[in-house]
Amino acid sequence: MKRLVTLAIALMAVGVLHAQQDKGGITPEMMTQIRTGQTNSAAERAARNALAQNPIAELAVNADNLAMIDTHFSHRVKTRGITDQHQSGRCWLFTGLNVLRAKMIDDLDLPSLEFSQNYLFFYDQLEKCNLFLQAVIDTKHLPMEDRQVEWLFKNPLSDGGQFTGVSNLVMKYGVVPAEVMPENYQSNNTAQVGNLIKLKLREFGLELRNMRDRRAPVARKTEMLTEIYSMLVRAYGVPPTSFTWTRHDVQGNPIETREYTPQSFYAEYFGDIDLENDFVMVMNDPSREYYKVYEIEYDRHVYDGDNWVYLNLPIDEVKALAIASIKDNTAMYFSCDVGKYLISSKGTLDIDNFDYESLMGVDFPMDKEQRVRTFASGSSHAMTLIAVDLDEEGNPTKWMVENSWGPKSGWQGNLIMTDEWFEEYMFRVVVDKKYIPEATLKLLEQEPIMLPSWDPMFAYEQ
Questions:
Q1: In this structure, which of 107, 226, 236, 289 has its CB flanked by the most CB atoms within 10 Å?
Q2: Which listed residue (91, 118, 129, 130) is catalytic?
Q3: pLDDT tens digits, 236-252
């Protein structure tokens, strides 16, 4: 009897397989048609020979676009120095601090300045650990198979982030100069420490879910965070609670030496800037309705902080806001799909940099909306928007961002993008409210549309 049942199951499986092949598999007739469509022209053979021995990124470079782009800009924010995030995903933090750095250098006419990314990254990782552990407690009533719970355990920690991380962390923990808590090997190479902490978090998460006493997880969470704190101290050092800093003039002469806390330092030099309330993140996402406000669940760095909230606007309106800010000498947090059509050696982002169509013999016609919907494009990297070049009619022809890949990367540490590239691959820019028209600000009064954690727009910039 058992053999008959086994045979029946096997026959059913074969029947299902045949049905699948009949309905959607590649048949011999289809394969013949596919092969017939393959040509063997001289151009085809040349492309095949070249691809067999060389990287696509080198072969697809457009020879007609090799000349260096014009580096003149009609409007440029005053900045000094280039930072380097090394092998870490902290572009969001470097970008946010570079915006503040440009302002302080200009306000005080400093010879140079860099804030400690290591200091705020320490607290970023601690806060994200708390965010995960508390989210596990909040979702204890859901099964492990629930999509939200699954997402949490797949994403317990990241070194990437976005602007709300900068705003919440700075307003809570302040800032310190780079020399007060300098970079070290682990802060420049965050993957290994991050993986160890993620392993610990998943262990802790299971423990919290298995606790039956509703009050016990809160106390246990504090003990867990104490262990995490110890791991962070070993990796990144002890974050200072006070420090001494000497201010210098532009010639390098000392002006005054004072003692600060990280919070008092921020209050002293940026006291009138409320990063949490004075700025708006605007987005150009043509896959969603414009003039609507969106919020993404758990897209934050601090549990008691803010989810990422953005106003979706047409690209021309985003450009107008960015131009107004640059004209007023104010740098901006900016993010884009940096890997598309980038020639690193030149530091240019230009849709004419590569000719993939000629190399591969096919077209790639999807527009921005289609690329977003199909996960072919999305925000991947944050940089500091510092320049725009306007023609005689006031229309932008190109833009420039200060990057955080070191002074030897790109063009003098910067990337220059054509306006056409800006339209296709720019996604987010954070603008001071004073540059936003009143009618646009009123749009922020609407109730945000909540998007789930797994939405394609939840993509940490790295």
A1: 236
A2: 91
A3: 999 999 999 999 999 98
